[in-house]
Amino acid sequence: MNRKQNFTKKGVSKTLEKNLPMAKRNKISASAPSHAWAAQLKEKGLSVTEARTQLLETLKNSKKPLSIIELSHRLKARSPDPATIYRNVLALEKNGLLNSVDLGDRAMRFEISSKESSHHHHHISCKNCGKIECVPVCLPKEMIARIEALGFQDVNHQLSFQATCNNCAAL
After folding, report:
1. Whole-angstrom distance, CA of residue 171 vs CA of residue 166
2. Residues 71, 47: Cα–Cα separation, whole Å
3. What share of the chain is helix, strand, coil (3-state, %, to 5)?
4. How confident is the model at residue 165 (pLDDT cuts 50, 70, 90)?
5. Could you give the strand order of the β-sheet that contains 66-67, starting from the edge strand earlier in sequence?
6. Distance CA 81, CA 71 (A)
7. How many CB atoms lie within 10 A of CB 29?
8. Cβ atoms of residues 52 and 88 within 8 Å
9. Distance in angstroms (rounded) separating the CA atoms of residues 127 and 103
10. Could you give the CA distance from residue 164 to residue 126 in angstroms, rounded to a whole number?
């Protein structure tokens, strides 16, 4: 077997990988793009890149929507530059994999699309410290029906609430 055939795309020898302890083997496979994300990206006609799968995985594991700056900080160890993050976030949003969230503080945030995460929700943010929480309430179905009766289809909405959290109120 020649040298090129003995190496994977990541540069790790297949023979060496088999001889690694299980913990190290898992680290190598953990860096590979998630098959679920890869399938969704392909379904949308998007290229499957490490930057896109890292963004999707980071947002999936986040308990709140993240801004480009927050994504950049969380992905810093993996080193995609902010311009790459921005371009990819816009492409993922345009193709329905991400939702943008406007909390009224001039920082657009992003989260996995409710179509992809199977739970529609809204947000509340603290006016003082910026803490963000998900709010599992939604508009009544009657309100959506009234909007559709006005001649609109595929109604989408986004609610955000601003308040003072208990920690800030106690100060």
Report:
1. 9
2. 20
3. 45, 15, 40
4. very high
5. 66-67, 109-112, 98-101
6. 10
7. 9
8. yes
9. 10
10. 5
The DSSP bridge partners found for residue 98 are 112
pLDDT single digits (tens) 5-40: 333 333 333 333 344 343 333 333 344 446 789 999
103 strand-pairing partners: none
Residue-wise pLDDT for 65-112, tens only, equals 999 999 999 887 666 788 889 999 999 999 999 988 888 788 899 999
Token pair recorded at residue 32: 């590979």
The Cα–Cα gap between 112 and 96 comes to 9
Q: What is the pLDDT of residues 139-154, one digit of tens each?
A: 778 888 899 999 998 8
Integer angstrom CA distances of residue 101 from 7, 15, 29:
43, 46, 32
Pair 150, 157: CB distance under 8 Å: no
Q: What does the alpha-carbon distance between residue 52 and residue 95 come to, in Å, rounded to a whole number? A: 12
Asked if 19 contacts 26 with a C-beta cutoff of 8 angstroms, the reply is no
Joined tokens for residue 25: 């083997």
Contact 33, 50 (CB under 8 A): yes
Show the DSSP H helices in 31-152 as ranges. Answer: 35-43, 50-61, 68-74, 82-94, 114-117, 141-149
| 112 within 8 A of 61, measured Cβ to Cβ | no
